[in-house]
Write the structure tokens for this entry.
Amino acid sequence: MTQSVLQFDNVTLRYGRLTALDSVSLSVPKGAIYGFLGPNGAGKTSAIRCAMGLIRPRSGRISIGGSGVVRQRRRALASVGAIIENPALFPNLTGRENLEVTRQMLNTPKARLDEVLEIVDMTAQAHRRVGQYSLGMRQRIGLARALLTRPELLILDEPTNGLDPAGIRDMRELIRDLPERTGATIFMSSHLLSEVEHIATHVGLLQNGHVLFDGSLKALAEQQQARLIIEAGPAEQAAPVIEAFAPGQWVCDGERYTLTGQFPRAPQAIAALNTALVEAGCAVSALHLEEADLESTFLTLTRPDLSGKAVAA
């Protein structure tokens, strides 16, 4: 059984009459890059604050490395590094001096400071005052600070928020390499689905305080329906061939056919369909398989008619 580094079990959080988290359950496996996804206001930051022990949930349990955050807070958080929103830094100090303040408070070895600067690629900029840094550079120093204690779990709240496209790309590549370079498990919240899709191994989809999915990206992809797009005509010759290939699983718009649901997806089967259409006298101008991406999957799962119950994998 895969070891869980961070675990939510039926966690509910309310602010007065507002339910921010409603029976949230999720599991973050050791070594994963877990993308915690949802629109603004979905409850992502509230969940992170609960995980950090900053807010106490109304009910349920959150554990880190098996230790409960509420009852064993010091032990649970001893192996955690975090950036919640924008890192608070001293603008008149250099990047290195900011890290040195934290290093002394945590009593970590001096050599670790140079190690974390190298990990976040800020060694050459560490002598500059933070007030002269771009937002992306400040994020990197904040990340270096979170890595000082060699955390087993790194919690990042919207780490690319406010960055320009180049900054987003650089931060994405940095985060992607962190598990291998540091051994840390990554739990990162984001509303940028396309960015998370590039680096995450696991995802949790959150909407209105409900977890709609919790599991690996592979399991999520397998759960969603691919589409086979065919453009072929004339219709009176193409339709019987397509019906024989996938009975009742297609819709037609002129000479464009879209197959969903259960149909043969193997390349050999699709090639055989193309051959059958040609042999039936059809002109085939397009035939391709469209896999569902994370964005389309999220939009499907967040349709208004959903019950809001979790789908685990």
In short: Residues 50 and 56 are 6 Å apart (CA to CA). The two ends are 13 Å apart (CA to CA).
